[in-house]
């Protein structure tokens, strides 16, 4: 039995290894994962849309400000990220008579998460020898940034597609990098690839 095998047979070593794996994995996923959902009108031919413009009636900015003659930093980030993604998809931004309008909203909320992998003994995943009471479940506080992007058929004035993305963020606003990550995650699902969507 070599030194590594002997080390891993010790309970304390198993605890340390499992914590390293747990923290390493969670550290990567919380900063990169975006939860995305979408819904759309299955009768719409999304391939026919070639031009787009911002929805003309968005009276307040995404942080609740008046948005009269200026934009918040988050609005600028949102508009830049959406514009880049629409261009990447081959859609052209126009001033008049677009095929679709794009509207969006963004907010940051305080959230709580109860760890599902806690055995009440002080260690996750069933390891450890602590005596902390088996009904205790640690609660993690975090901030979640939620972005909703709507695509409206300009001729029919009806919602054609809606995408929603949520990710953990660091502050009370959504940073440049986080905005790009969330918007990219949402618009990756546009146009819809559902078998019922017309092409």
Q: Can you tell me about this structure?
A:
This protein is an alpha/beta fold. 28% of the residues lie in helices and 27% in strands. It has four helices and six strands, in the order H-H-E-E-H-E-E-E-E-H. Helix 3 links the parallel strand 2 and strand 3. Helix 3 packs parallel to helix 4.
Radius of gyration: 23 Å
* Mean pLDDT rating: 75
- State the major sheet: 6 strands, mixed
How are the strands ordered across the major sheet? 1-6-5-4-2-3
For the termini, the CA-CA separation is 62 Å
Query: Which structural category do the helix and sheet elements fall into?
Result: alpha/beta
Unreliable stretches covering 5 or more consecutive residues? 12-31, 120-132, 195-199
Shape: globular
Residue share in β-strands: 25-35%
> Could you give the order of the helices and strands?
HHEEHEEEEH
Q: Tell me the number of helical segments per DSSP (H or I, 4 or more residues long).
A: 4
Report the helical percentage.
Answer: 25-40%
Strand segment tally: 6
């Amino acid at each position: 039995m070599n030194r590594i095998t002997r080390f891993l047979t010790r309970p304390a070593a198993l605890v340390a290894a499992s914590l390293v794996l747990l923290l390493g994995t969670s550290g990567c996923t919380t900063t990169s994962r975006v939860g995305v959902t979408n819904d759309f009108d299955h009768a719409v031919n999304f391939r026919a849309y070639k031009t787009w413009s911002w929805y003309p009636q968005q009276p307040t900015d995404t942080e609740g400000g008046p948005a009269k003659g200026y934009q918040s930093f988050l609005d600028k980030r949102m508009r830049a990220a959406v514009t880049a993604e629409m261009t990447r998809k081959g859609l052209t931004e126009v001033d008049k008579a677009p095929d679709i309008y794009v509207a969006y909203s963004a907010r940051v909320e305080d959230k709580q998460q109860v760890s599902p992998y806690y055995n009440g003994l002080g260690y996750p995943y069933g390891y450890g020898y602590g005596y902390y009471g088996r009904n205790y479940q640690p609660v993690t506080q975090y901030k979640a940034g939620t972005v909703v992007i709507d695509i409206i058929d300009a001729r029919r004035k009806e919602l054609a597609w809606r995408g929603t993305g949520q990710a953990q963020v660091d502050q009370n606003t959504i940073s440049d990098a986080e905005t790009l990550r969330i918007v990219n995650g949402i618009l990756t699902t546009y146009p819809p690839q559902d078998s019922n969507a017309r092409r």
